[in-house]
Specification:
CATH superfamily of one domain: Tetratricopeptide repeat domain
Largest sheet: none
Distance between the termini: 107 Å
Structural class: mainly alpha
Radius of gyration: 28 Å
CATH topology of one domain: Serine Threonine Protein Phosphatase 5, Tetratricopeptide repeat
Order of helices and strands: HHHHHHHHHHHHH
CATH class of one domain: Mainly Alpha
CATH architecture of one domain: Alpha Horseshoe
Number of strands: 0
């Protein structure tokens, strides 16, 4: 074979090898790029949801799902989008798809639990909240435990609900909702000093609400504390004159 033909063959062979090398290294890089693209689309979709730009949010969630048809984040975003559009049935479906795609996606479980709780599907909500609370890596476990307790209260399980609220406070001592729920339970059991202490702790963290002021009035009446009853009643009147709690106060509780 002539010298120039050998050089051409060697050049072609080198190009084949180079092409093979580029292909072998290009695939994982491309895969990483696709994952980043999917995550970017989900983030953009959530940003547009916050701006209430539903069409743009849908566009980006759909883009993410075209990259990965099992993207739990995209499904969860679509669930929120459906809620904004008032389509509960499809929101339910998308939440289920998100959890099916990633059973350990505790944020989706907690949000789905809230969806179910608001629709009075308390037993179903409890299962989702319990799964989120059991996730040791979930950053909002304290909130999940509060939601567990709230669901249990609705199901008439006050004793276990109280334990859930205690767990929430162990994780986050400033979880104010747990204090008022425990105060309500203590009041229901006739433990008025304990209810008062828990309510005081709640009001130290959280500004007074119609519910907390009405509960304070009820406790004050049981403990015959006229000053606290009067001050709470005045605060309820001045701060929340249109609230159902003030109306019930005017009607004599």
């Amino acid at each position: 074979m002539s010298q120039w033909r050998k050089r051409i063959c060697i050049s072609i062979f080198s190009l084949v090898l180079l092409s093979a090398c580029v292909t072998s290294y290009d695939r994982p890089i491309q895969k990483v790029d696709m994952v980043k693209a999917m995550q970017t689309h989900i983030k953009l979709g959530l940003d547009y949801l916050r701006q209430n730009n539903l069409n743009s949010a849908r566009f980006h969630f759909n883009k993410a799902l075209k990259i990965d048809g099992k993207s739990a984040g995209a499904y969860a975003g679509m669930a929120v989008l459906m809620l904004r559009e008032g389509d509960d049935a499809r929101a339910d479906q998308f939440y289920r798809k998100a959890i099916s795609s990633d059973p350990g996606y505790s944020l989706a479980r907690n949000n789905y639990g809230s969806f179910l709780y608001e629709r009075k599907r308390y037993a179903e909500a409890l299962l989702q909240f319990e799964a989120a609370a059991d996730d040791l890596n979930y950053e909002r476990r304290a909130l999940a435990y509060v939601n567990v307790g709230l669901s249990q209260v609705k199901l008439g399980q006050q004793a276990v609900a109280e334990a859930a609220f205690v767990r929430a406070l162990n994780l986050d001592p400033n979880m104010s909702r747990a204090y008022i729920e425990m105060a309500q339970i203590a009041f229901g059991k006739g433990e008025y000093p304990a209810a008062n202490q828990l309510l005081t702790r709640y009001q130290y963290i959280q500004r007074p609400t119609p519910r907390s002021l009405l509960l304070q009035i009820k406790i004050a009446r049981k403990t015959n504390d006229k000053n606290k009853e009067s001050s709470a009643g005045l605060a309820l009147k001045n701060l929340y004159p249109q609230s159902p709690e003030y109306k019930s106060l005017r009607q004599g509780l």
